[in-house]
Amino acid sequence: MLDLRKLRYFLTVAEELHFGRAALRLHLAQPPLTRQISALEAELGFKLFDRTSRTVTLTAQGRAFLPYARGVLEQVELAQVIAGKLAAGTAGQLALGYASSIALSDLFSQAIQAFAQRFPEVQLTLVECASGSLGAQVADGRLDIGLSRLWPQSAEVQALSLGEERLVAAVSSDSPLASQTMLSVAQLSTYPLILFPADYGSGLNQSIEQLYRHHGQPLRPGPTGRQITSIIALVAAGQGVALVPECTQSLMNKGVTYRPMQEAEACAQLLVLTPTSERGVLVDAFLGVLGQAFHIR
């Protein structure tokens, strides 16, 4: 294996084409430098320099070898820089999982944008999945951090509340409900309710079902959609009504009207999930960005 120190000596002599000046740059006496270059030539099996009492020039092999030696040293320097950034938490990879109903939040996009601007050398991977599976994926290391609407069931995952988001009713624009300025659970209960599939593990489903039970209203199951966009498309098609986070109103579907809910309990929680065990510096960095976005101290 080539000695990196000898490669640096070679590069310095190649730049100076003078052993005396190269030795001064390297803070070496000239004889040890000459010996190191000779040792490198012996390892390589060819001469790097043609030397006379007055001139030093690169040989043809030396000129051909020079860009490779320079490339090796540049990669070593880059590796040292990256290692420092990894240790400081300003480079690396971060896998972030999030529930479908969270993706449309302005605060979510603001946090992603702020993190990307602050840590441009971090490769951020976004994974959309159901709240029910986020905890397990954080626990087993598939995800570094999760944004969920369900409290985790595993002791290997801890949750921090980011607050609650109001729910609004999404109704077909040609429905009588669209003419109301505000709606109630009682009014919605006479219509099929469009939810995520029962086996999807949706935290939003859980909040909505609890809201109906709390107000003693029957829930008429309607068709289901695996994404919030699918649910809104079903509403536009007149297949039922839906309760969705306020941020969903950014989906300006012509056939859908959004109305606020009367009930103060019409909310869905927002949680950030992290491993209970020691977490990486990048997770802490993202939590710091989330804290600023959601005004958490």
Which features would summarize this protein structure in a list?
297 residues, LysR family transcriptional regulator, Arc Repressor Mutant, subunit A, 2 domains, 23% strand, D-Maltodextrin-Binding Protein, domain 2, DNA-binding transcription factor activity, alpha/beta, LysR_subst-bd, transcription regulation, two-stranded antiparallel sheet
| The number of domains | 2
CA radius of gyration? 31 Å
Beta-strand residue fraction: 15-25%
Q: Supply the CATH architecture of the largest domain.
A: 3-Layer(aba) Sandwich
Say what the CATH topology of the largest domain is: D-Maltodextrin-Binding Protein, domain 2
* H/I helix tally: 10
Helix content estimate: 40-55%
Inertia-based shape: rod-shaped
Largest sheet: 7 strands, mixed
Give the structural class. Answer: alpha/beta
Order of helices and strands: HHHEEHEHEHEEHEHEHEEEH
